[in-house]
Design goal:
Blueprint lengths: L1 H14 L13 H12 L4 E5 L27 H16 L4 E6 L3 H10 L4 E4 L8 H17 L4 E6 L22 E6 L2 E13 L6 E3 L1
Parallel strand pairs: 1-4, 2-3, 2-4
Antiparallel strand pairs: 1-5, 5-6, 6-7
Helix pairs in contact: 3-4
Length: about 210
Amino acid sequence: MRLLCAAFGAAFFVVSSPAIAQEPAPPAEAELEKAFDILRDGGGVLVLRHANSPGGQKAPVGMAEGCILQEGRGLDAEGLYQARYFGEWLKAEEVPILKAYTSDMCRAWDTARLAAGGAKVIPHPSQKTTDPNAIASFKKEIEAELAANPGQNIMLVSHSNIAPLYGAAADEGEEEIPSGAIFVVKPPKWDELRARVDLTVNAAPQTVTVD
């Protein structure tokens, strides 16, 4: 873990001015290891709201071919870093990801591509709908996929109004699930949150903390 953090610090230094180049802050090991232990065993679902994507961007970018780029929205530099950082962590910790299902909005699809670490990414209508029948049906599909692929996990990347339908939950005092928050659930107990990991990049000095 220390080597990985150091590697990220070095890479960030190359593309940033010395004034804001900082090594990622040490993670809260207990919660992070709890999440990784669950996921290494397989059978888990990582539920993500897309990474940081503030509105009103002057030059929004969508990287995934075919994604829908909402006016003024896309991952900003912080969001790109969050998603890529988490993908590298999953790889380094040898967390198996079978596939990722995502909303077709660019901010979610791009998050999935970066965070899934090379696993297949599939845009899926379930990650944009609040229809209870469609959600219940999709949950059964995920449960079947996990049962057919022991030791694997599935990632879901969506939006602040969709992620809670799959077990994500805002903490007390939060108006909504923040960007860059990752929630671990273990079907069929979708309502039982097993772990939460937050990736945040602070404005000044620019650092990454995981808690």
